[in-house]
Amino acid sequence: MAELITKNITKRFDGKTILDGISIEVHDKELVCLLGVSGAGKTTLFNVISGLLKPEEGSVFLNGKEITGEAGHISYMLQKDLLLPYKTVLDNVALPLIIQGEKKKKARQKAISYFKDFGLEGTEDKYPSQLSGGMRQRTALLRTYLFSESKRGTGIALLDEPFSALDTITKSSIHEWYLDVMEKIHLSTIFITHDIDEAILLSDRIYLLTGKPGQVTDEIIIEEPKPRRKDFNLTEEFLSYKKKIIEKLGTI
């Protein structure tokens, strides 16, 4: 069971309000998207949720416990994979376990047990420079997940535009793969994107974060069941969601 709740998060820098009263929820095995224009404070909100920043007002709760301003509870993957070039794929993946105090041998054993589910079999002894963009993202996502499953972990991952650097074909493939992995390992996810199509295809719910300061202006529930139809992005339902989001974002 994993549940994340923020209540009335307000964050300021140098007296300027960046986030204004943000309240969102992520429930067990949900994938929730933060969608909005640049400058609305989405990454700032992730920094507050992860405990890297403390808000001026509001609270963050994880499974009923307040964790406001406390780092180390929730895993956080940035847009860049940040893999260490001098470490093998296996050692990159095992790193969060080692940081949390696991012995290197045990950390490697635990990490390698997930390589099949993450489609990384055969890459254990390779280096990041030898991987494709999609495989690098899979490696980074597994590392992120293992942090969430470590001593203080919770099965919740924050992903900041994790697929934005991938080409269209690779992105489509990794979308399908990630939803499958989430189901297998019971992972909850909240992710940031600027891609409306991506948000509709992946999300259970979408929060629209707009304005300066950033505010949640709408919550959109995607009713299409998962796994989604292969041609869902060609349906009238998909286009209806997209039109609604574009109108609410005020981009037409």
Explain what this protein looks like in three dimensions.
α2 (89-99) crosses α3 (104-112). A 6-stranded mixed beta sheet has the order 6-7-8-3-9-10, with helices on both faces. A 4-stranded antiparallel beta sheet has the order 2-1-4-5, covered by helices on one side. The model has no long low-confidence stretch (mean pLDDT 86). Helices cover 33% and strands 24% of the residues. The chain is globular. By secondary structure, the protein is an alpha/beta fold. The protein starts with a strand and ends with a helix.
N- and C-termini, Cα separation: 40 Å
Shape: globular
Oligomer: single chain
| Low-confidence runs of at least 5 consecutive residues | none
* Class by alpha and beta content: alpha/beta
Query: Major β-sheet, in short?
Result: 6 strands, mixed
The total count of strands amounts to: 10
Tell me the strand percentage band.
15-25%
Major beta sheet, strand line-up? 6-7-8-3-9-10
Number of contiguous helices: 7
Helix-strand topology string = EEEHEEEHHHEHEHEEH
State mean pLDDT (0 to 100 scale).
86
Give the fraction of residues assigned to helices. Answer: 25-40%
What gyration radius follows from the Cα positions, in whole Å?
A: 18 Å
